[in-house]
Amino acid sequence: MVKRKIINDPVYDGFLSIDDPVILQVIEHPYFQRQRRIKQLGLTYLVYPGAMHTRFSHMLGALNLMKRTLDVLKLKGVEITDEECRGAKLAILLHDLGHGPFSHTSERVLVDVPHEEITLLMMQRMREESGKWKVESGIDAQKALSLCIDIFTNKYHKHFLHQLVSSQLDMDRLDYLGRDSFFTGVSEGIVGTDRIISMLNVHDDELVIDEKGIYSVEKFIISRRLMYWQVYMHKTVIAADQLLLNIFRRAKDVVSSGQCVVDSTRAQVLPTFLSLDPSAPDFLDRFAEVDDDDIMVAVKHWQHSDDEILSTLCKNMVNRRLPAIRFSNEPFPEPAPSYFEGTGRLRNRSYDFNDQEIKVLYKDGRCLPISEASDQLDRHFLEKQVTKYYHFYPKQI
Predict the structure, then answer these.
(1) What does the pLDDT look like over 324-354, one tens digit per residue?
(2) 178, 11 in Cβ contact below 8 A?
(3) Which domain covers residue 149, as residue numbers?
């Protein structure tokens, strides 16, 4: 009897049915279950209270979209084998596996390794372990995960499968725009996901959009631009991120100076994440143990630190006393080094010409880049990079 799981997803108002034995084993793996404890939008819930959704739900949502897209492409005559379908589904399911606590917020601070590299290490570890998995006869889990890794790293000969995982119009972006819009209540992120998927096609081993889908893609590009400034780069979210990053930095400085991060009357809290070493043999296992809960438990303990700076920073985080922040089109003067004040820069471009362009396939066989095909999105609009400078500082009480 085939094992099957039914998962309800409020974003798509329906059910995701999973019966692939390798995918079911992957979902049960501790690396994947950890994603339940990693918020998709980090500290954004301090601005949009509903933004409590997790990497776990996003990765399952992306799997849902991948399944639907592969079905559409096969109906259009694109040759995709069952093994390739499984590999592509695994690749999108695992694409965010290596994110640290609070997603992008902790990247490069807790450990100076990009999350994509950690994701690949975790995939490789799963492949090693999969030889012991009990799956249906005739299905090779190690072979499936090897194909998954080849698609994820763009080493598989069918390039369009990698584009479904990572490109300017992939299942990752389609899901996170709709999901983040749903849970923040910001309607600017709503895109015609069903329409876009139904218009996807393959031409000369490239993922393309059929001519009739051009307006949906225009909306997708504009929505992504708006969501970056209204949600992902909201000034209060940036202020919260800076506060948490400075907590990490101060805690590391306190420990490196030989001090304790809490006083002697309380339990000593020296979390794993303060001493993660990418070169250590057990790095992956130690990294996989760290999630959002560990960070917040430590922050709550550190409110009672003998170090006044660390204590104040942590009390501010726990009680949502965030720094004031202002944006400008010009750089701010650099203040004196401080854990409470600083400057930075944000950059966003709605479309990247250095990446492979989204292409539109016409009925007569022509295939044009969206920058040429669209009468709404000219090249100047698409390539314009918006740069904003920020200055965060303590609020005046």
Answers:
(1) 999 999 999 999 999 999 999 998 877 776 6
(2) yes
(3) 5-185
